[in-house]
Amino acid sequence: MFEEYRRRKIDTRAQTRPADSSRRSCFEQNSLSEIGRMAELESPSGILPPIPDDLTLVQFILDYQHSSRPVRNHEYDVPWIIEDRTGEAHGLEESRTRAFGLANGLNIRFNIKEDDVVLVFSPNHLDYLVAVWAIHRLGAVMSGANPSFTSDELVYQVQATHASVLVVHPDVLPVARSAARIAKLSEDRIVLFDTADTPSTQGVFPTVRSLIDQGLSTFPSFRERRLNPGEGKTKVAFLNFSSGTTGRPKPIAIPHYAPIANIIQLAVHNRVNDDRIPWEDQRFRPGDVCSAVLPLYHIYGMVFNAHYILFCGMTVVLTTARFNFLDFLDTIVKYRITHLMLVPPQVVMFCKHPAVSQYDFGHVRYVTCGAAPLSREVMNRLMEVFPNASAGQSYGTTESCTVITTFPVDTKRDTSGSGGQLLPGITARVERSDGTLADFDEPGELVVKTPSLSLGYAGNPEATRETFVKGWFRTGDEVKMNKRGEVFVLDRLKEMLKVRGFPVAPAELEGCILGHPDVEDTCVVGIPDEYSGELPVAFVVLRQEASKRAQDPSAGHEIKRSIAKHVSDHKAAYKRLARIEFVDSIPKNPSGKLLRRVLRDRARRLESRGIAKL
Q1: Integer Cα distance of 374 and 481 in angstroms
Q2: Where is the AMP-binding enzyme C-terminal domain (predicted)?
Q3: What does the DSSP 8-state code read for residue 147?
Q4: Helical H runs in 162-196?
Q5: Helix (H, G, I), strand (E, B), or coil: what is residue 265?
Q6: CB 521: neighbour CB atoms within 10 A?
Q7: What's the whole-number mean pLDDT along residues 303-322?
Q8: For 445, phi and psi rounded to 5 degrees?
Q9: Residue 491 burial (CB count, 10 A)
Q10: CA 599 to chain centroid
C-alpha cells in the first residue's frame, strides 16, 4: 500500500481536478491587488522555524530538542503521563525504555518491520502512547480504531489498512476476535493491553507487558534508522480514518512530518518557550497539567491533546475509563489540572450540569473546544465556569493532521464564535461555489495549504484528487474569514457528519439501512444538536408492502423502531439514528447524486417544529 509513498513524495501541486478548469483559470486571473481584498491570506500569527524532515514522530518527541521546545525542570522527576484512576505515572526514561522494549518484542514475536500496519483497538490506556512509539521505532504504521466499533466496522478497518497485528484492550477482546476471524487474521496476532483482568487471559494472548519484558531481556533484533533528508514528508506514520467529501470512511495516510509540523505550528502560534512573555502570561508552561480525556485513536487526541502537550513540557493526565462527567470533575480538582481540551458535548455539560457549581475551577488556566462550532452564548457561559482561564475555540481536520485554527494568543477570552486564527505557515482562501474567491467576511468553502497536510487517502486516488487539489486541501466546510485570519465555521458542505466529535459517513449508514427488508431507498443527513454537534436523520422510502402497512400509525412506528434497531445492532452507539422520516422518493440530480441539502433543509424544518425524535 505504501510503496508509492516510499518511492516518491506525492506532489499534490501536480494533481488536478477533472472539473476544475474554471476554478483554476479564475485563480490565475486574480491580480495581487484583487487578492488583497479577497479572502485569501497567509497566517499573520508568526513565522515557522525549520521543521525537521528526517525524524519520525517518536524520535522528535523522545529524543530531540527543537528550538521552540521548553526544557523541563527536573525532567527525570516530572511525570509525562499519569493514569487518572490509579495515579500510576510514567516519566521520560520509563516511556522511552518501555517503547524500546515493546518494539523489540513486537519484532521478535511477530516480525513487525517497516511499513507493516499495527492496529490499536482500545480506549485510552497508560501504554497506548508506548504502543504508538514502539510501532514507530520499527518504522511501522499505526492505525487507531474506535473501541465502540462493532465487529463489522472493525473488519472494515482491518481490511482497509491490511493490519498484521491487533493491540487490543481486554474489554473489547470478543469484538476483536470476531473481526480477526472474519478478516482472516490469525488470533495469535492479537496482543492485549494489561489491566487488572488481564491475568485470566495470559497464556492465550501475549500482553504488552510480557512483550516489553521479552524485548528488554533480549538482544535488540531490529535497528532503528534515521530517515533520509525529506523522507519524513512521505514516510507514513498513521492511518487515521475520515470520510473526506463523500462515501465510506477512508484511511488517511499521515506522514511523520505532518504531526511534527503541527506541533511546531501550535508552539509558534502560542509563543511557547518565548521568554519575552512574562511567566504568568504564558499559555503552555513546563509543569502545567493537561487532562487527556479525548480518545487517542482520534487525531485531535493524538496530536494536540497528547504529543503537543508533552512537547510543551507538561504532564498529561490520561482518562482511561469510560467517560463519566462527575468523575471527570473530580479528576480536574484531584490533579489540579490547568489545561482542558474538550468537545461540544463536554462543554454543554460544564454549562448545564448542576454538579459543576460545587467545584472551584480557579486553577484552570486554558480551555479550548474543537470538533464542532460553539455559539457565543455557550462560550460566555463556559467562561463563567472557568473565570481565570484563557478560553476559545479551535478548528481542524484529520486530513490536515489536526489544528488549522485556534484562538489568537493576544485574545485571552474569545467570545466571538470564531474557530480561531490560522496557525503559522498556513495559507487559506475562501471560495464561492463557482470557484471564485469570496470577499473577506463572505461565506464560502475554506481551502488551505499547510505543512501538516496528509498525503491523501491511501489506496483511493480518486478521492485524493477531489480533496487535495494543486497543493490545496478542500475542507468541505462553509466558513467566513476576516482579515486577521480568523475563521468562523458556518456549515458542512461535505457529506460527513460530526457526532460528538466522531466522523460519521452518511453512505455507511445508508448502506446499513438498505439492508433492512422494508427499505427501498434512503438518504441520511445531519441536524444540529446542542449536545452532540450533529445527529443523523434518515429519510426512508419503504417497499410497497411495507408502505401499505405504514399507513397504520402504530405499524409505521414499529417499522421505524425496527429500522433503528437494525442500525444500532450493526453500528457503534454514536452512529444511531436520531429520527426516521418516511418519504415517497429521495431527491436526486440527473446523474443520480443524492441532493442532501434538500433533505437537510427539510430535516431542520422538522427540528424547528419540534417533531419528536426516536
Answers
A1: 16
A2: 508-593
A3: T
A4: 173-182
A5: helix
A6: 17
A7: 95
A8: -80, 135
A9: 12
A10: 27
pLDDT in tens, 74-85: 654 679 999 999
Domains of the chain: 3-54+236-492 (3.40.50.12780), 91-225 (3.40.50.980), 497-608 (3.30.300.30)
Give the position of cell 499573520.
44
CA distance 266 to 258: 12
Instruction: Look up cell 469570496; give the residue.
Output: 438
| Residue 353 zone, left/alpha/beta (φ > 0; ψ -120 to 50; rest) | beta
Measured CA distances, 46 to 85, 407, 412, 535 (Å)? 39, 14, 17, 37
Rounded-to-integer distance, Cα 122 and Cα 128, Å = 8
230 phi-psi bin (left φ>0, alpha ψ -120 to 50, beta other): left
366-369 and 339-342 strand pairing = parallel
Per the CB < 8 A criterion, the answer to whether 427 and 453 are in contact is: no
Residue 6 reports pLDDT greater than 90: no
What pLDDT, in 10s, does the model give residues 559-582?
Answer: 999 999 999 999 999 999 999 999
B/e letters for 355-386, b = 16+ CB within 10 Å, e = fewer, are ebeeeebeebbbbbbbbbbbeeebbebbbebb
Rounded to 5°, angle at Cα 186 from 181 and 192: 95
- Note the residue count of the chain: 614
Question: Minimal CA–CA distance to 559: which of 518, 523, 515, 600?
Answer: 518
Which of 272-278's residues contact partners 24+ apart within 8 Å by CB, and which partners?
A: 272/68, 272/69, 272/70, 272/311, 272/312, 273/68, 273/69, 273/70
C-alpha torsion angle, residues 513, 514, 518, 520 (rounded to 10): 130
pLDDT exceeds 50 at position 31 = no
* 273-296 mean pLDDT: 92
Which grid cell sits at 544?
A: 410497497
